[in-house]
Amino acid sequence: MNILISNDDGVDAPGILAAKQAVDDLANVYVVAPDENNSSVGRRLTLFKHLNIKSYKLEDGSQAYSVSGSPADSVVVGAKYVMDEKPDLVISGINQGVNISCDITSSGTVCAALEAVSLGIPAIAVSLFIDPKTAYKQDENGEWYVEYDFELAKKVLHDIVLKIIEEGFPENVDLFNLNVPTNYESEEVKITHLSHKMLDKKVIDKYDEDKAEIFNYPLDENQPSDDLIMIVSDLVKEYDEGSDGYALFVEKCPSLTPLNINMTNQDLNDW
Questions:
Q1: For the segment 223-246, what is each residue's pLDDT rounded down to a tens digit?
Q2: pLDDT the model gives residue 218
Q3: CA distance 156 to 151
Q4: Rg (alpha carbons) of the chain, rounded to whole number
Q5: Are 101 and 13 in contact (CB under 8 A)?
Q6: At what angle are helices 14-23 and 151-167 packed, to 10 degrees?
Q7: CA 51 vs CA 33, 45, 58, 188: distances in Å
Q8: Beta carbons of 160 and 124 less than 8 angstroms apart
Q9: Cβ(176)–Cβ(160) under 8 Å?
Q10: pLDDT over threshold 90, residue 221
């Protein structure tokens, strides 16, 4: 079996190595990913423009490739240029952050998987919910850092890929969206549907006192801000039972959502 792995966090992100380690014993693995972070770019494609492709060594010394484009670009380049044969499966991730609900169409991680499906390749998008209460640590100098615990995500991903090798994809399923919490209370994988939304969005300007620290953080000293605005968001707090958000945040267990790329709703008889 040949597996292509990509992501939206960039080729140097720890999650892409974790994904490779999860399936290394199951297949021939190829890694092609953006050369920098491409979060929230959706399914953007770079057509009729030059892209840079460079050889890259992952932390374990294995071969990878970086592409100066989007996650979807990386999947196309991997499947159509780097690999001699069409991959049997594409894995996108492991993303450093949650990707749930109907908001997934803005996710570079999920849209890399969607691009794979458009090429006739089944795919899995994998994301890690990082609990801020346990993941943020301080070193001996008092500096904050994030400790990524990929172990359960790697285990679940391995088991799903093994099941796909043995049984194939379920009928009428094009891709899986897998989300795994770091603060899990159960390792049982729940089959879920998409929540309505993941993010409550708001637009702020320099007069918004509650979000002033966020608004001012990227500004250079003395940079004028009169004409600047910023879209900010907060995670939705309530999810319906059976949804991906409910499994992740309420039941605190892995969520696996089967998806079909064809968004057509066939039933309009009474409209």
A1: 888 889 999 999 999 999 999 999
A2: 81
A3: 9
A4: 19
A5: no
A6: 40
A7: 12, 11, 21, 42
A8: yes
A9: yes
A10: no
Asked if residues 127 and 93 have their Cβ atoms less than 8 Å apart, the reply is yes
**Residue 18 in tokens:** 């974790």
Up-side HSE of residue 270: CA atoms within 13 Å toward CB? Answer: 0
- What integer best gives the mean pLDDT of the chain? 94
Nearest residue to 171 (alpha-carbon basis) of 47, 68, 260, 67: 260
Q: Which value, to the nearest 10 degrees, does the dihedral of the CA atoms of residues 130, 154, 31, 107 take?
A: -40
Q: How many CB atoms lie within 10 A of CB 109?
A: 27
Backbone φ and ψ for 191, nearest 5 degrees, come out as: -80, 125
Q: Which of 76, 74, 38 is nearest to 56 (CA)?
A: 74
User: Coil, strand, or helix at residue 17?
Assistant: helix
3-state secondary structure of 230: strand
For 81-147, give the DSSP string: II-SS--SEEEEEEEES---SGGGGG-HHHHHHHHHHHTT--EEEEEEE--HHHHEEE-TTS-EEE-
